[in-house]
Amino acid sequence: MSDTLQSHEPLIRLGIFLLVLAAMALWEVLAARREQRIRRWQRWPGNLLILVLDTLTVRLLFPLAAVGAALVAAERGWGLFHLVPAPLWLALPLSVLLLDAAIYFQHRLFHAVPWLWRLHRMHHADLEFDVTTGLRFHPLEIVISMGIKVAVVTLLGAPAVAVLIFEVLLNATSMYNHGNVRLPERLDRRLRLIVVTPDMHRVHHSIVRCETDSNFGFNLPWWDRLFGTYRDQPDAGHLNMTIGIAEFRDPRELRLDRMLIQPLLSPKASSAIQSGRHGSQG
Question: Is 265 helix (H, G, I), strand (E, B) or coil?
Fold first, then answer.
C-alpha cells in the first residue's frame, strides 16, 4: 500500500494540478475580477518557469518529499500519532488541520523575519494577481518550506494519505485563492467561513504593508480570525487597490532571471536600479 501511494503520488498531484490550473485560467477569462494592465505573456513565462525550477529543486533535495517522510515515520514509529495511537478517521483530519496551522505560522514567520521576507517578497512582487501568482515562490523559500513540512509531518507521525490530501489541497487552494475571478458577494461571504477565497487573499497582496501583513491563510480561513490577522476588505477596494510591493515595480522584474536575484537586492539598490532604467528611457 505504501509503495503504491508513493509511486503514484507525483501522477496524482500533477493530474489535479493541471485540472485546477486549466479550470481557474478558463474562469479568469470568463469572469475576471480585475482588469489586468500587465499581460499574461509578460508574467506567465516567469511564473511557470519558476514553478518548474521549484519542482526540480525539491525533487532533487527531497526525493521522498513530505509523503515519503510520513512513510518513513510510520516504519520507524516516529511522531505523535504513533506514540499515542489514533484511528485513521481521527488522525487523518487532525493531521490536515495541524499541517494547515503550521503553514499559517510559517507564512507569518516569512513576513516577520527580514531575511525570510527577502525570499518571500518575490511572491508578492507580482504586479498582477491571478492563478499563476499562487505558483510563484523563490526556490530557496520552497526548500525551507519543505524542510519545515517534513519536520512537522515527522513530529506528528501524520498518515501518508493525510499528507497527500493536504499537499493536493494546499496546491489547489493556492491556485484558487490567487484567482482573478469574480464571485457574488453573498457567496464569497459564506465560502470564506470554510475556505480562503480570492477576495480574502487578494488583500494580502496589497502594496499597503498593514494589508500585506494580514490574511495569511492559504487553505483554511480560521487561523486569521483566531489569531487576529483577518482583514475583511482592502481600504482602496478590490478594483482600485495596487498589487505588489513598492521595491519592484518595473515590469522587467517579472523575468525569471530578475526574480531569482530579488532576495539579493536591498530596497535602496532595487529602487536605484529602477530609477536608472526610467532615467535612461527618458
Answer: coil
Write out pLDDT tens, residues 131-189. Answer: 999 999 999 999 999 999 999 999 999 999 999 999 999 999 999 999 999 999 999 99
* Axis crossing angle, helix 88-112 with helix 114-124, rounded to the nearest 10: 100
Max CA-CA distance within the chain? Answer: 69
d(CA 37, CA 14): 30
End-to-end C-alpha distance for the chain, whole angstroms: 64
Predicted TM-score (pTM) of the model is 0.90
| Residues contacting 108, CB < 8 A, separation 6+ | 216, 229
Cell of 15: 493530474
Half-sphere exposure of residue 120: CA atoms within 13 angstroms, side-chain side: 19
Q: What is the DSSP letter of 193?
A: T
DSSP character at residue 79: S
C-alpha cell at 96: 490536515
String of DSSP letters for 109-164: HHHHSHHHHHHHHHHHT-SS-SGGGGG---HHHHHHHHHHHHHHHHHHT--HHHHH
Element (H, E) at 19: helix 2-30
DSSP 228: T
Which three three-digit cell numbers place residue 90?
481521527
Q: Which three cell numbers stand for residue 73?
A: 515515520
Alpha carbon 9 to its chain centroid, in Å, reads 20
User: How do the domains of the chain map onto residue ranges?
Assistant: 2-277
